[in-house]
Design goal:
Blueprint (H helix, E strand, L loop, with lengths): L1 E7 L10 H17 L5 E10 L4 E8 L2 H11 L1 H4 L1 E7 L2 H10 L1
Antiparallel strand pairs: 1-3, 1-4, 2-3
Protein name: DUF3303 domain-containing protein
Organism: Nitrosopumilus cobalaminigenes
Amino acid sequence: MLFGVFAVHSPESCPLNNKKSKTTFLKIESKLKKSIKNHNINKLIAFYMSVLEHEWIIILDAKSAHDIETMCMDVGISSTSTVKIVPLNEFSKAIEKIRKS
């Protein structure tokens, strides 16, 4: 199942402006890659950033949102950001459901 992880932080806690956040952020990618299997994450699909909006967008293939929640705490994402985990559907599958309804 695909999930979008939307992590938003304030300008004050931005890694560009905050030394503690910078230290945490510089380690996040390697921590994510190391912890994926420990948290039942099948695959890291994509990791995007919108610098001016202070938002990270991570697309994961995972078994549950609870596993993603734990991973976000363990790797440090939740220490600098508010995190929203959203189940995602492929457009074609959504269209298929709409047609059947």
